[in-house]
Amino acid sequence: MPMPERFAIYYAPDTESAFWQRAAAWLGRDAATGVVLPQPVLPGFDGQRFEAFTADPRHYGFHATLKAPFALAETATQADLIAAVAMLASTHPAFNAIIEPQAMGSFIAFRLAAPSTSMQALHESSVRLIDPFRAPLTPADMARRLRAPLTDRQHEQLAAWGYPYVFNDFRFHMTLTGRIENSGNRQQLLDAAIQYFADDCGQHQVTSISLFHQPDVKSPFTILARFTLPQP
User: Fold this and answer.
1) Distance CA 215, CA 80 (A)
2) Domain map of the chain by residue range?
3) CATH no. of 6-228
4) Is 115 helix (H, G, I), strand (E, B) or coil?
5) Is the separation of the CB atoms in 7 and 224 below 8 Å?
6) How far is residue 177's CA from residue 51's CA, in Å, rounded to a whole number?
7) Per residue in 61-114, pLDDT tens?
8) How far apart are CA 188 and CA 149, in angstroms?
């Protein structure tokens, strides 16, 4: 049975910004336009090797998850969802966060360099307010999620919210690579990311949220709509 289309609430930088352009080139695809892009040449990594390391995040586009991908509930429409995300955005003022590339387990991502109560609040609102639009997980979805080791709390969150890493288990990250098991390769690529994204580290303005869309399981995610956060 084919997987239905999915939606997700992501944070993505301004698609006109130099940061977005650099990140899209790093991943090899612009999720705003769907255009495949030439990737940068990094010291110590040939093109084919770097392409493999970035294959997983390229499929999703450059983003941080606020509300994980979900199929739309039978009682909801895409227009309903868009209106709800617009309402969500209107209740959270724009804010600054300090970010930088870091290792996160076996992969590399932009992460918060200092705690952000505003980011946490935006995530929690996204989970709670958008969940009524989420279809229940299928048995296959549940089995896939349960392949990863989860705590008791994460099991409960998976059952309640369709995703285990929410609320106290939320970790803001904008993924730059897939899993890199070799620690030497991982450190070398982290060093390259820090240099490549030197202008994007430090204070970062969070001014919008985005609704991403995936029409089917084989297609990559693209930005369906962006919603500006009000100025404080």
Assistant:
1) 17
2) 6-228
3) 3.90.1140.10
4) coil
5) yes
6) 9
7) 999 999 999 999 999 999 999 999 999 999 999 999 999 999 999 999 999 999
8) 28
